[in-house]
Amino acid sequence: MTSLQGRVALITGGRRIGAVVAVELARLGADVALSYRNSLDEAETTAREVRALGREAIVLKADVRQPRDCEQLVAGTEAELGSVDILVNMASTYVHRPFGEISEAAWRDDIDANVSSAFYCSMAAVPAMRRRGRGHIVNFTDWLPASGRPAYTGYLPYYVAKAGVKALTEALALELAADEILVNAIAPGPIVPPADMPEDEQQEAASATPLGRWGGEIEVAKAVVLLVTTSFITGETIRVDGGRHVR
């Protein structure tokens, strides 16, 4: 079995899917730092699950839309856990905004939360990875922009931001290849239905997926494990979408 013993993973956005990712990395031996902005209780719960597996876990507050917070997040992780070997940029927002209601502030919020945050955290983490002589960065985009398909109205800033994450991943992979820092992205599709999604809409989404079901958080965690253990995949975006992009 692949081992992450002696490695430290920093995960931004440790709720729901992020919590499962954290636990799976801990199962493989990684110590884990979790950042949160508002969801302290959920982050603490995940940290307890990691510690129950015999791994170290810390929880740090940060607004990853702010470069300084990202720098402090990495510095805090290094101070408490000794290094940053893996960065998983999961922090994100998903807000429906009709085109006519997109203000400058709304545009900036989506861009900063979804793509600027990944850039700022990566910039902060790279020096730590260079000191270790290796590293893995995993960004999170979305299956629609990864497939070049806007598909739904009302998500223009989100779509642009997530398309930017794919571009960031590719360009950063090229920039950091000489440092043995591998940069990849995951593009989830129907993984977990929103808590407020009606049953009929959940079924509709499942029916539109060739595999006929929602994937569940563990499928994303499996993809993260692949991308933080590879030594020869970089600049890639993997769609974890049950085949939605081929229909």
Give an overview in words.
It is a single chain. This protein has a seven-stranded parallel sheet, sandwiched between helices. The longest helix has 29 residues, at 104-132. The protein has one domain: NAD(P)-binding Rossmann-like Domain (Rossmann fold). With 247 residues, it is an alpha/beta fold. Helices cover 47% and strands 15% of the residues. It is globular. It contains eight helices and seven strands; from the N terminus they run E-H-E-H-E-H-E-H-E-H-H-E-H-H-E. Helix 1 packs parallel to helix 2 (40-52). Helix 4 links the parallel strand 4 (86-89) and strand 5 (135-140).
In short:
By secondary structure, the protein is of the alpha/beta class. The chain has 8 helices and 7 strands, in the order βαβαβαβαβααβααβ. The radius of gyration is 17 Å and the shape is globular.
Features:
7-stranded parallel beta sheet; Rossmann fold; 15% strand; alpha/beta; 7 strands; 247 residues; 8 helices
- With strands numbered from the N-terminus, the spatial order across the biggest sheet is 3-2-1-4-5-6-7
Which ranges are low-confidence, i.e. pLDDT below 50, for 5 or more consecutive residues? none
Helix content: 40-55%
| CATH class placement | Alpha Beta
Describe the largest sheet.
7 strands, parallel
Oligomer: single chain
Proportion of strand residues: 15-25%
Average residue-wise pLDDT: 96
Fourth-level CATH superfamily: NAD(P)-binding Rossmann-like Domain
Structural class: alpha/beta
The fold-level CATH name is Rossmann fold
> What's the number of extended β-strand segments?
7
Give the topology string: H per helix, E per strand. Answer: EHEHEHEHEHHEHHE
Global geometry: globular
Distance between the termini: 34 Å
